[in-house]
Design goal:
Chain A: It catalyses: N(6)-[(R)-lipoyl]-L-lysyl-[protein] + pyruvate + H(+) = N(6)-[(R)-S(8)-acetyldihydrolipoyl]-L-lysyl-[protein] + CO2. Chain A: This is Pyruvate dehydrogenase E1 component subunit alpha. Chain A: It comes from Rhynchospora pubera. The complex is a heterodimer of chains A (395) and B (406). Chain A is an alpha/beta fold and 395 residues long. Chain A contains twelve helices and ten strands. In chain A, α9 links the parallel β9 and β10. In chain A, α2 crosses α12 and α3 crosses α9. The longest helix of chain A has 26 residues. Chain A starts with a helix and ends in a 35-residue tail after the last helix. Chain B has 406 residues and is of the alpha/beta class. Chain B is 33% helix and 17% strand. In chain B, the strands form three sheets. In chain B, strands 3-2-4-5-7-6-12 form a seven-stranded mixed beta sheet, sandwiched between helices. In chain B, β6, α9 and β7 form a beta-alpha-beta unit. The longest helix of chain B is centred in the N-terminal third of the chain and has 15 residues. Chain B is globular, with a radius of gyration of 21 Å. Chain B starts with a helix and ends with a helix. The N terminus of chain B is likely disordered. The chains are: A alpha/beta (395), B alpha/beta (406). The interface between A and B is large, with 61 and 67 residues.
Chain lengths: 395, 406
């Protein structure tokens, strides 16, 4: 996706610095050669044999991970500035630090598989094929937004890519996701649905209800807990008696994954998809971290220290997903550091251009207040023995 | 039972049916009703059936000699009458069965709907016919299975979610309000939610406070939701079919005490309009707006009122959201007096909204303040006498009409 952006950019006059990807020479390996890379930590399984730590990938894929995550990171930072400039209002929940989950998941699945998540959805939307202009316009409430400006930060959707949103109420998206999985089984689609939720939502009753029903009916539902260790302002050890979220399914098997390692996420999602299609639901716990607070109104430092944040990111644990991929690319001589820097510069430019374009989009028309409340025409005709053959129409 | 047959007698098509068009609509009523006032003498017959009731056309047009239909005539010509007789829950089942047969994406979800056959037998036999994947027994988890119904509707399935009692759907209120009602809007029109949520509600026979709730007053403000209430086997089947075919989320309110009403309904397929009100009894003096079970209390009161010389116009509003202001407005323009009889509680009920809608739209046509009879603002007591006092009784309706028409 970002590669496509880069290719488009190479035709514009200001991108003369950027060499097109397809034309470059790699120092050691070709685009499609398979690399086997070990994940940072092994997987832990609950009632299931975990998959191997060795993940197959290609240089092309690693570069796409890098550019996609860089784009997502840049978008979130830009959204932060826009919020402080009061162009984005209300709630804005940022995903920086967690990009590996979105990107790794996309690498393992197709657009026929469904994804549903909560309100931290900007990057998931991008991963599903959404574009920056749609995202920024929606954040600023403009017509060009993916929901025509009527949804906002928490309501990004993309039906043609099976992205079911974008939900504000904690935990409510999990039964929806299991419903999508039900429809996939009903229609014999051979696809799965990933229902994402956070460690805070893991304590919602409706999750266990939906899991019970999914297990009973053998639905291809994969429940993914993005455990960033804080449910809003409350640390996981203060909210959950048992913070081993991958074990919470009890009779449903679970897998604990390093959610800041895109390759581990990819491996786990691939494994989960195969499992779910054959056997029914499975839980994945992505151990990840968010650098920002819960939302823009939360500084994120009242319940944790800045040292902890920087520790996770780069100082002690060095788990930042983009840095990890950068190191892999440099270690395997896939691209020089300068090229990676160029990608980041280009990504910055893409985001700035998208924001400028989004700012030009107008606010929705007043008539849009009343559109899409009902499906037009209500859809029912009356006929037959009721003696009146009229079509139901809106007055 | 008598009240339904009487209701059938007093109702009539609002426009005369041309006699060359073959219809069985008017013959759904009991035999003597072919003399129903408005028909203007046009006898409507089915092409192969014998003419029912013999001297139907010879009867006087506006003379109603009996307030209750004559049973003898009905019994003798039972074989020759077109259509078939059934109970309201069977009519619901028939509608559901026909839609499931017609469209493979229709499925049913609810507690005890499958193997048990439904706690009110609405889904009896459907599980054996369509299998476990289309008639799904859920665990007792309203929040999640309503959510799952909505999620599957987002992909294009047409689930019919049953709440064993409407009151239990309060547990799924978040899903119904936020996801069901609002997703079409917040996704900018990308997702349609063609779900039907149905179940029995209302005050029953000493079921207790928690099982006697009227959820229509809680759901009415949810934008994006459509609400209908059925009251006869005929409109139950028609509304069920229309609700399933609708692209919008529809909540179909049934009533616990109306499931065993018997009526003759046509053999042919018919679908009713979700937004239309039903003219139960045309009249001149006062417009009585009602729905669901209160329709029968109103018709019982109408019997008394007719004997006292009043001519009430009774409209079963059927569509609780949105209101059929066209039918209601025409009636108010004619009668200039309105009485609303509902089972919701006084505070924040359907009557309250209907009253303000009428005031906003038809103020100039009113000769008297709108009277609204509702249930008392109390949890429904268990004791029978107290329970009777919480809901509106026919005597109160008669008194209200007398006051209005003074």
């Amino acid at each position: 996706m970002a590669a496509a952006l880069l290719r488009r950019a190479s035709t514009s006059p200001s991108a003369s610095l950027l060499r097109p990807l397809s034309g470059r020479l790699f120092s050691s390996s070709s685009d499609e050669s398979v690399l086997s890379i070990e994940t940072s930590v092994p997987f832990t399984g609950h009632k299931i044999e975990p998959p191997s730590r060795m993940v197959d990938t290609t240089p092309k894929e690693l570069l796409s991970f890098f550019s996609d995550m860089a784009l997502m990171r840049r978008m979130e930072i830009a959204a932060d500035s826009l919020y402080k400039a009061k162009l984005i209002r209300g709630f804005c929940h940022l995903y920086d630090g967690q990009e590996a989950v979105a990107v790794g998941m996309e690498a393992a699945i197709t657009k026929a598989d469904g994804i549903i998540t909560a309100y931290r959805d900007h990057c998931t939307f991008l991963g599903r094929g959404g574009n920056l202009v749609q995202a920024f316009s929606e954040l600023m409430g403009r017509q060009a937004g993916c929901s025509n400006g009527k949804g906002g930060s928490m309501h990004f959707y993309k039906k043609d890519a099976s992205f079911y949103g974008g939900h504000g109420i904690v935990g409510a998206q999990v039964p929806l996701g299991c419903g999508v999985a039900f429809a996939q089984k009903y229609n014999k689609e051979g696809a799965v649905t990933f229902a994402l939720y956070g460690d805070g939502a893991a304590n919602q009753g409706q999750l266990f209800e939906a899991l019970n029903i999914s297990a009973l009916w053998d639905l291809p539902a994969i429940l993914v807990c993005e455990n960033n260790h804080y449910g809003m302002g409350t640390a996981e050890w203060r909210a959950a008696k048992s913070p081993a979220y991958y074990k919470r399914g009890d009779y449903v098997p679970g897998l604990k994954v390093d959610g800041m390692d895109a390759l581990a996420v990819k491996q786990a999602c691939k494994f989960a998809k195969e499992y779910a299609l054959a056997n029914g639901p499975i839980i994945l716990e992505m151990d990840t971290y968010r650098y920002h607070g819960h939302s823009m109104s939360d500084p994120g430092s009242t319940y944790r220290t800045r040292d902890e944040i920087s520790g996770v990111r780069q100082v002690s644990q060095e788990r930042d997903p983009i840095e990890r991929v950068r190191k892999l690319i440099l270690a395997h001589d896939i691209a020089p550091a300068s090229e990676l820097k160029d990608i980041e510069k280009e990504v910055r430019k893409q985001v700035d251009d998208a924001i400028a374009q989004a700012k030009e989009s107008p606010m929705p028309d007043a008539s849009e207040l009343f559109t899409n409340v009902y499906v037009k025409g209500y859809g029912a005709e009356s006929f037959g023995a009721d003696r009146k053959e009229i079509r139901a129409t809106l007055p | 039972m008598a009240s339904l047959q009487m209701a059938a007698l007093l109702s009539a098509p609002s426009t005369p049916v041309p006699s060359d068009r073959v219809r069985v609509g008017s013959l759904r009523l009991s035999a003597s009703s072919s003399s129903a006032a408005r028909n203007g003498g046009a006898l409507v017959v089915r092409s192969e059936a014998k003419v029912s009731g013999g001297g139907a056309s010879a009867r006087g047009l506006s003379l109603i000699t009996h307030a209750v239909a004559e049973k003898a005539a009905a019994a003798s010509s039972a074989d020759s009458k077109p259509g078939h007789e059934l109970l309201l829950f069977e009519a619901l089942r028939e509608g559901l069965d026909e839609e499931m047969e017609r469209d493979p994406t229709v499925c049913v979800m609810g507690e005890d709907v499958g193997h048990y056959g439904g706690s009110y037998k609405v889904t009896k036999g459907l599980a054996t016919k369509y299998g476990d994947l289309r008639v799904l027994d859920t665990p007792i988890a309203e929040n999640s299975f309503t959510g799952m119904g909505i999620g599957s509707a987002m992909t294009g399935l047409r689930p019919v979610v049953e709440g064993m009692n409407m009151g239990f759907l309060l547990l799924a209120y978040n899903q119904i309000s936020n996801n069901c009602g609002m997703l079409h809007y917040t996704s900018g029109g990308q997702f349609k939610i063609p779900i039907v949520i149905r179940g029995p509600g209302g005050v029953g026979r000493q079921l207790g406070a928690e099982h006697s709730q009227r959820l229509e007053s809680y759901f009415q403000s949810i934008p994006g939701l459509q609400m209908v209430a059925c009251s006869t086997p005929y409109n139950a089947k028609g509304l069920m079919k229309a609700a399933i075919r609708s692209e919008n989320p529809v909540v179909l309110f049934e009533h616990v005490l109306l499931y065993n009403l018997k009526e003759r309904i046509p053999d042919e397929e018919y679908v009713l309009s979700l937004e239309e009100a039903e003219m139960v009894r045309p009249g001149e003096h006062v417009t009585i707006l009602t729905y669901s079970r209160m329709r029968y209390h109103v018709m019982q009161a109408a019997k008394t009122l007719v004997n006292k010389g009043y001519d009430p116009e009774v409209i079963d509003i059927r569509s609780l959201k949105p209101f059929d202001l066209y039918t209601i407005g025409n009636s108010i323009k004619k009668t200039h007096r309105v009485l609303i009889v509902e089972e919701c509680m006084r505070t924040g009920g359907i009557g309250a909204s209907l009253r303000s809608a009428i005031i906003d739209n038809f103020w100039d046509y009113l000769d008297a303040p709108i009277l609204c009879l509702s249930s008392q603002d109390v949890p429904t007591p268990y004791a029978g006498t107290l329970e009777n006092w919480t809901v509106v009784q026919p005597e109160q309706i008669v008194a209200a009409v007398e006051q209005l028409c003074k």
